[in-house]
Write a structure and sequence with these properties.
Elements (H helix, E strand, L loop, with lengths): L7 H8 L3 H8 L6 H14 L5 H8 L4 E6 L3 H6 L3 H15 L3 E6 L3 H12 L5 E4 L7 H9 L3 E3 L11 E4 L1 H14 L5 E4 L6 H14 L6 E3 L5 H14 L5 E4 L2 H14 L8 E3 L16 E3 L2 H17 L6 E4 L2 E3 L5
Parallel strand pairs: 1-2, 1-3, 3-4, 5-11, 6-7, 6-8, 8-9
Antiparallel strand pairs: 10-12
Helix pairs in contact: 1-2, 1-3, 6-13, 7-8, 9-10, 11-12
Length: 332
């Protein structure tokens, strides 16, 4: 006959205490030190594993924290830099807190509805949102439902959601100012998505830096390598006078660099180039890429930390902004 799974009664009998004492300890309630030590020994000896479903009924906690990315699986898993590092930072923070990460992709209306139902039903203790676009309906719905929610950027729309972001505007401004100081007279930018806070703020930083001294030259991108290639081809065709480009992501800068190399343009001789993010490959391009370093791992850790504070006591900063750093390499 198969061995029966150890129960609270099994542990109580081995420890010489009541079932109620074992239950209190399992659910993190006060227990006298001698009884606690006896129960801990008994748990180890009999191999007892708490029933999470039953425990959740008592604590009203599942031990599950969701990271929701409103992107397609193709976008998330083709980006081998930002999303993996963000997830790593979140996972490290949650592991320290003995919480389990649940990754959810909301790249379609159906998946957003499914995630909303799951979260509102209490299947997770809280939600972290990252890579939001526009007035995201999921962000609005979750915030209105009362479930603890934290976003990695400011949420656009009629809700207030605590956020953890980076100084996108200041970082972009510093990048473009470096190009100006180095003598570049006609600086273009390849933007991020116009419906994302990071895209908007990095464009604003570019505009801050050039001020009235230069006419803005703007080509649209979406943070991907392909969009950087397309935008750079357009700039070379339509704006022959430019001598520098600020790309709002390193992936776009990498695409732009590929086009420049194919066109015979020397970097930085003919065209200076600066990116944003400081992904690992930025230091290995030819030439190595000047970029704005954002603390992607730290962003993930702070995102998780803020949500855990929100779940436990509701006290968090409404808007936490992490600093960026200009890293000057040979491309500028």
């Amino acid at each position: 006959m198969a061995n029966r799974r150890p129960t609270l009664e099994t542990v109580a009998a081995r420890a010489g205490v009541s079932r109620a004492t074992v239950s209190r300890m399992i659910n993190d309630q006060p227990v006298a030190p001698p009884s606690r030590r006896a129960v801990e020994r008994a748990i180890a000896e009999v191999g007892y594993v708490p029933n999470q479903a039953a425990r959740s009924l008592v604590t009203q906690r599942t031990g599950l924290i969701a990271l929701v990315l409103p992107e397609s699986s193709t976008r998330v898993f083709s980006d081998d830099q930002f999303f993996p590092r963000l997830i790593q930072g979140v996972s490290q923070e949650l592991e320290t807190a003995d919480e389990q990460l649940v990754l959810m992709l909301a790249g379609s209306a159906a998946s957003r509805d499914r995630i909303e139902r799951s979260a509102v039903a209490g299947r997770v203790d809280g939600v972290m949102l990252a890579s939001l676009h526009g007035t995201d309906p999921l962000a609005v719905a979750l915030a209105k439902s009362g479930i603890p929610v934290v976003s990695n950027e400011r949420v656009l729309g009629p809700v207030e959601v605590p956020s953890v972001g980076v100084d996108n505007r200041g970082g972009a401004r510093a990048a473009v100012q470096q190009l100006i100081v180095s003598g570049r007279r006609r600086i273009a930018t390849i933007t991020g998505p116009s419906d994302m806070i990071a895209g908007m703020d990095r464009l604003d930083g570019y505009l801050d830096a050039i001020g009235d001294a230069q006419e803005p030259v703007v080509a649209a991108g979406d943070f991907t390598r392909t969009s950087g290639e397309v935008a750079m081809e357009r700039l070379l065709s339509e704006e022959p006078g430019i001598d520098a480009v600020f790309a709002a992501s390193d992936l776009m800068a990498e695409g732009a660099l590929h086009v420049l190399r194919q066109s015979g343009s020397r970097v930085p001789g003919d065209m200076a180039l600066v990116g944003f993010d400081d992904i690992t490959r930025a230091r290995y391009t030819e030439p190595p890429l000047t970029t704005v370093r954002q603390p992607i791992d730290g962003l993930g850790r702070h995102l998780a930390s803020q949500l855990l504070h929100l779940i436990s006591d509701g006290a968090v900063e409404p808007q936490l902004t992490l600093p960026t750093e200009l890293v000057v390499r040979d491309s500028s």
